[in-house]
Every structure is written in C-alpha cells, then in structure tokens.
Amino acid sequence: MPESSRIEDLRRRVQKDPASIAFAQLAEEYRRAGQFESAIETSRAGLATHPDYLSARVTLGRALLQLGRLAEAREELAIVLQTSPENLAAIRGLAEIHHQQGALPEAIATYERALMLAPNDPELERAVTELNQALARSLNTTDREHARRELAVMEQWLLAIHVSRAQSLS
Questions:
Q1: Domain boundary among 30, 65, 84
Q2: Do residues 59 and 42 make contact, with C-beta atoms less than 8 angstroms apart?
Q3: What is the extent of the structural domain holding 2?
Q4: Same domain, 92 and 64
C-alpha cells in the first residue's frame, strides 16, 4: 500500500473513532513521511485519551527530536523509560539527544546501553565508535589548550624573573 493511501486510511479510521488506538500508527506514519508536526499533533491528541500508550509516546519523542525540540523530546522519552527501562527506541532517542547537545560521555553511555539490548546492531556500534573517537579528539584538544595556557603563564613568570634579575644587577 502506498504511503499516502496508508496515511489516508489511518486518518479515516481515527476520524471515525477518535478514541481508537490507530492514532499511534497514524502518528508513526506521519513521522516516517517527515510530517513531524502532524506526528506531534496526532500523538498528543491520542495521548490525551491513552496517556499510557508508550509506542505513541516514543513516536512523539522522536518527532520532537527531529524538529530539534530536545527538552520536550527528552521529557517524553523519560516517561517511556520510567515504565519500560529497556525500550530500545527510547534509549536510542535519548542517546541522540545527548549527542546533539554535545554531551559526548552521556551519549556514549546511552548508546552502549542500547548496544547491550541490541548487541549486533552495526548502527549502534558505529555510533559508539565515532563518539569515542570524537571524545578522544576533544580531550586531546582540551589537554593541548590547557598546556598552552600553562606554558604562557610560565613564560610570563620567567620573563618577570629575568627582568627582576636584570634590575638587581644594574
């Protein structure tokens, strides 16, 4: 079934029965189609009736993440993880939030948590490897910058000693 006709079919089902759990499928189809605002709107409307529907909450979190609304996405995914701590999609979403926020150690730890649940996932393995390399580069850059600052302070201190000696010899 083509994507648009699947969305239309689900949309009709939800319109016919607004309390239907088909809202979750519709929201996910919107998300996959890149219609993130529609996914968010549909998820929120359905969650008003079915607040414990975790897959809809994951879809909402992932759509929010796609739009860069990281705090809202984190909130939704945290709700999922409180009830279902091994929800792989929520863990991956949380790892991506950490990554986008530049919190590399947290992103690595969260991706590793996901990798424990899906040990042969090449995408997760690649993410952990790339983030570990990025963190190592970042630490090396930070270490070099710190050493440069210390060296500049010591050079100023040595210059002050030389000036002081020169003045005492004159």
A1: 84
A2: no
A3: 1-84
A4: no
Q: What is the CATH number of the domain that holds 61?
A: 1.25.40.10
Residues 6+ apart with CB under 8 A from 143: none
How many domains, in total, are found in the chain? 2
pLDDT in tens, 130-144: 998 988 888 777 667
State the pTM of this model: 0.78
- Burial 73-98, CB ≥16 within 10 A → b, else e: bbebbebbbeebeebbbbbbbbbbbb
Span 4-31, average pLDDT = 94
CB 53 within 8 A of CB 47: yes
Could you please report the per-residue DSSP string of the chain? --HHHHHHHHHHHHHH-TT-THHHHHHHHHHHTT-HHHHHHHHHHHHHH-TT-HHHHHHHHHHHHHTT-HHHHHHHHHHHHHH-TT-HHHHHHHHHHHHHTT-HHHHHHHHHHHHHHSTT-HHHHHHHHHHHHHHHHHHHHHHHHHHHHHHHHHHHHHHHHHHHHHHHH-
